[in-house]
Amino acid sequence: MPEPAAGAPALDETMLAMDVVDTIRHADRLVERELAGTDRQARLRERLREIYKSQGIEVADHVLDAGIAALEEQRFAYTPKGEGWRRSLAQAWATRGRWVRFALAGLGGIVVLWGVYHFTVVAPRQREAAAITRELQQDLPRALRAEHDRVLAGTQEAAVRADAARLLAEGEAAARAGNLAEARARRTALADLAARLAAAYSVRIVNRPGEPSAVWRVPAANPRARNYYLIVEAVDRDGRPVEVPVTSEEDGRTARVSRWGLRVPEAEFERVRRDKLADGIVDQPVIGQKAAGSLATTWTVQTTGGAILSW
């Protein structure tokens, strides 16, 4: 057997140094305690000598020093190469009991959150979108056609029937384009037109104590002029008020009212004023008739049709 090379440690000393490293590595408390000071190597050497002496083994100082140095240099530590993913997989499998619980808990939380979001946000939006689609494709076209037919059934006036046809075409086009607001507006306009055609009422001068029957106004555009109005109301055959759309000529505002000021010539204003002053009542209060099937009112007085909503 060949002799060891000059300067190389003997095999038994190398093995002993490895044993020293292994002893230190498996003595965690010893390492933590003895390596904490500035003279840690000297104190660690003494402790190691005591450990080996208790086992009946004499270890030279240079062997202990070699073991300590080897531990600090990680000389005898095993580092796997080329199998990192396999080692990680093995560690994951070995610790599966711990991380699987966390994974399942996290997955459960995600499922709960998704369920809450779905039922509080996604599902209502889907129902709303489905309702809008159904309204645009089915409900509105059917309602538009029904209101259009009501108008045609209620009048023979060509102008009114043409207006109804225009509203129907505009409403159907808006529904096809997905314009919900415009389609609804045309349906409302057709319903209002049908209701106005069906209404029948009389227009009479207000003739009650303490309430004016006629007023005059100074227009803002011409302070030298006066505009004259009869205060009138629409009532059905039983005397109940009927609301009709009236547009003010002073500010252009339109409102549904049962009472308004109807503009008349000064002569008509004076006739009514003198009539009421004579005995406190207006002898012929009814001055207009609106028949079903027509939008026009037949007047028994001269009027421009202008109106005011306040006085």
UniProtKB/TrEMBL annotation:
* Keywords, sorted A to Z: Membrane, Transmembrane, Transmembrane helix
Q: Say which domain of life the source belongs to.
A: Bacteria
Annotated InterPro entries: DUF6384
Q: Which residues cross the membrane?
A: 99-117
Q: Supply the name of the protein.
A: Uncharacterized protein
Organism of origin is Neoroseomonas eburnea
